[in-house]
Design goal:
There is one protein chain. By secondary structure, the protein is mainly alpha-helical. It has one domain. Helix 3 runs parallel beside helix 5 and helix 6 packs across helix 8. The two termini are 22 Å apart. 32% of the residues are buried.
C-alpha cells in the first residue's frame, strides 16, 4: 500500500472528501464529550481527565487542517457538538458546555487568524487547559466556599508547625499555582503533539488499518453504559430552596462555631442549583434554539448521533494496538492516532 503524507492528501483531496473528514472528526469530538472518558475508564486507560480535554484540542486542530474555511467550519462543529452533548448527555454539568464552547470559539479565532498551524496549536492547547483548570477551581470555590482554602491553609500550617518550618504561608495559593502550571505544561505538550499529528497519521495509517483488518471486533465492541434519567421533581426544588434560605438568612458568620455544617449546607445548595436548576434550563434553551434552526442543522446533529455507536467500536482495538508501544505517553499518543485513523477510514 502506497503511503502519502496527510498534508499532501488534504491539499489534493476533493472538497467532498474534506467535508466527510470534518463530519467524522466532529462526530469523534462529540463522542469525546459524551462518554469517551467513561469508555477509557472501563478499559483502564490512565490520565482520563487530561486526555479528554487534550483530545478535544487535537480534534479541533485536525478539523482546521482539513478545512478551507476554518472559522466557519470550527464554529459549526462547536455548535453541533454542543447540540449532541445536550441530547446524548443531558446529565453533563453546565461548566462542561462552557469548556466545549471556549475550546471551539478559541480554536476558530486562532486557526482562522494564524497561518502557522504549529503556533496556533501551541497557543490553543495551553489556553484551553488553563481554562479547564481555572473552571474546576471556580466550581470548587462556589460549592465549598472560601472555607475549603482556609482549611487547607490551616492543615499545612499545622504540618509546618510540627516540623518547625516557617508558617503563615498562603499554601492554598501555592497549590492553585502548581495546579495551573501542570495544566499549562500539559497544554504545551498537547499543542506540540497536535501540530505534528497530521504527518504521523500519514506515516502510520497503513499499519493501523492492517491491524484493524485482522482484528475486526464484532462481539467485542465497547458499549457505553446507559444513563437512566431520574426526575427528582418538587422534593429537589424544596431542598434547594431550604438550603438557599438557610444560607441567605444565617450566612457564614452565624456558623463560626460549626463551620462544617455551613460547608455542608452551602455545598448541598450549590450542587442542587448547578445540576437541578441550571442544567435543565441550559438543556431546554439548547433544544429550543435547535427547534428554531433550519432542518439541515437538525439533520446534521441527528447524523452525528447516529455515528456515535460505530465510533465506539474503534476504542478497544485502538487501545489494543497502542498497548504494543513502550511507555505510557507513547501508548496514549498512538491510541489517539489509531482512533482518528479508524474514524476517518472505516465505516461507522
Amino acid at each position: 500500500m502506497e503511503k502519502h503524507h496527510l498534508s499532501e492528501f488534504m491539499i489534493a483531496a476533493p472538497t467532498e472528501n474534506q467535508a466527510q473528514a470534518i463530519t467524522r472528526l466532529t462526530a469523534l469530538w462529540a463522542l469525546n464529550e459524551c462518554g469517551l472518558g467513561g469508555l477509557m475508564f472501563a478499559l483502564k486507560i490512565p490520565l482520563t481527565g487530561f486526555f479528554v480535554g487534550g483530545f478535544a484540542v487535537v480534534l479541533i486542530g485536525l478539523i482546521a487542517s482539513y478545512s478551507q474555511s476554518r472559522a466557519k467550519d470550527l464554529l459549526k462543529a462547536t455548535v453541533l457538538v454542543l447540540i449532541v452533548k445536550a441530547t446524548v448527555s443531558p446529565h453533563a454539568p453546565p461548566p462542561a458546555y462552557l469548556a466545549v464552547a471556549f475550546q471551539g470559539l478559541l480554536g476558530a479565532l486562532l486557526y482562522s487568524n494564524i497561518r502557522n498551524v504549529t503556533l496556533a496549536a501551541m497557543l490553543l492547547a495551553p489556553l484551553a487547559m488553563l481554562e479547564s483548570a481555572a473552571q474546576k477551581l471556580i466550581v470548587l470555590t462556589l460549592i465549598y466556599g472560601n472555607p475549603l482554602w482556609k482549611a487547607l491553609n490551616r492543615l499545612f500550617e499545622s504540618i509546618t508547625h510540627d516540623f518547625s518550618l516557617p508558617g503563615h504561608l498562603p499554601f492554598s495559593y501555592w497549590i492553585i499555582s502548581l495546579y495551573l502550571l501542570v495544566h499549562v505544561v500539559w497544554g504545551l505538550f498537547v499543542g506540540y503533539y497536535s501540530a505534528g499529528l497530521p504527518a504521523r497519521i500519514g506515516r502510520h495509517t497503513g499499519e493501523v488499518l492492517l491491524f484493524y483488518d485482522t482484528y475486526r471486533p464484532a462481539a467485542d465492541a465497547v458499549v457505553a453504559p446507559v444513563v437512566k434519567r431520574r426526575h427528582y421533581g418538587r422534593m429537589a426544588m424544596l431542598v434547594l430552596l431550604l438550603g438557599l434560605i438557610v444560607l441567605v438568612l444565617f450566612g457564614e458568620g452565624r456558623f463560626r462555631n460549626n463551620m462544617i455544617l455551613y460547608v455542608i449546607l452551602r455545598s448541598l445548595a450549590m450542587v442542587i442549583l448547578l445540576f437541578y436548576v441550571l442544567r435543565p434550563l441550559l438543556n431546554r434553551l439548547i433544544r429550543y434554539w435547535l427547534q428554531s434552526r433550519d432542518k439541515g442543522t437538525r439533520q446534521e446533529a441527528a447524523e452525528l448521533i447516529g455515528m456515535l455507536p460505530g465510533l465506539r467500536r474503534f476504542v478497544r482495538p485502538s487501545w489494543k494496538l497502542a498497548r504494543k508501544r513502550r511507555g505510557l505517553l507513547r501508548q496514549l499518543s498512538f491510541f489517539i492516532l489509531s482512533l482518528i485513523v479508524l474514524s476517518l477510514h472505516e465505516e461507522t
